Amino acid sequence: MKIDQSVVLVTGANRGLGLAFARALVARGARKVYAGMRDPAGFNEPGMVAVKLDLHDPASIAAAAERCGDVNFLLNNAGIARYEKSVLDPAGLADAQAMFDTNYFGTVRVTQAFAPALLRNGDGAILNVLSVASWIAKPLLAAYAASKSAEWSFTNALRVELKDSKVLVSGMHVGFIDTDLTKDLQVAKLTAESVVATALDGIEAGLPEIVIDDVSKAVKASLSAANAVYLAPPDIK
Ligand SMILES: NC(=O)c1ccc[n+]([C@@H]2O[C@H](COP(=O)([O-])OP(=O)(O)OC[C@H]3O[C@@H](n4cnc5c(N)ncnc54)[C@H](OP(=O)(O)O)[C@@H]3O)[C@@H](O)[C@H]2O)c1
């Protein structure tokens, strides 16, 4: 699809990767960029229309879908990560449920609500922001990884369901990015701007899967190997 003249809704567009996406979409000539966020008060970015949208609140999602009926590109970006010490600690279950409610169920809710407009408007796309963690897990990020695997699986099923439509279904996999979500991790990080540029190039090229960085490419390439990276992943501090 062409981003120039497209009408896009980005979830979680008030900060982090979502804000970088929304800015890049404006710069690439999108006709309208709806910036979805939980609290639009005080948000003022050139070329964007702030829209209240909370992934946990079906009424806010329905209202956003009603208001943004001209959307032809849905960018499911909003997500959360909570870090764990041990997968064996029952105290982690509440965080796991919160991550599934946002990353998996939230993405499903938004996609279901916006699907009628996307199918009606055509020549568009759905891009789900996944992670290298869809394919690799460690105790620190176990439930986050599971929620991203679930979101990856949903993306794959959605692609099959929409295969005869004019809506590209794509998922992007990426390693650590320099946003609030990773501020406590001492690891090499990509810039949000570089990630967004590769992702949007992938959408314009019609790619059903966009593997952004070398780490994600190496993990994907190893999945069928006897010594797949997920069997003994490198340390993260
Ligand atoms: N950073 C990384 O290393 C990395 C790597 C791979 C994938 N990702 C994925 O990239 C996406 C964006 O993450 P980020 O790094 O930009 O994180 P971030 O800086 O923490 O931003 C998260 C965004 O999601 C929004 N959000 C959270 N819960 C929401 C809800 N219930 N309803 C609506 N919006 C909600 C936040 O809004 P509030 O301001 O209201 O909290 C914020 O805009 C996520 O899906 C994440 O899993 C990140």
Automatic annotation (TrEMBL):
The keyword Membrane does not apply. NCBIfam families: PRK08264.1-3 (NF006117), PRK08264.1-5 (NF006119). SUPFAM superfamilies: NAD(P)-binding Rossmann-fold domains. InterPro entries: NAD(P)-bd_dom_sf, SDR_fam. It comes from Duganella callida. Pfam families: adh_short. The keyword Oxidoreductase applies. One of its GO terms (molecular function) is oxidoreductase activity. Belongs to the short-chain dehydrogenases/reductases (SDR) family. GO terms for cellular component: cytosol. Keywords: Oxidoreductase. This is SDR family oxidoreductase.
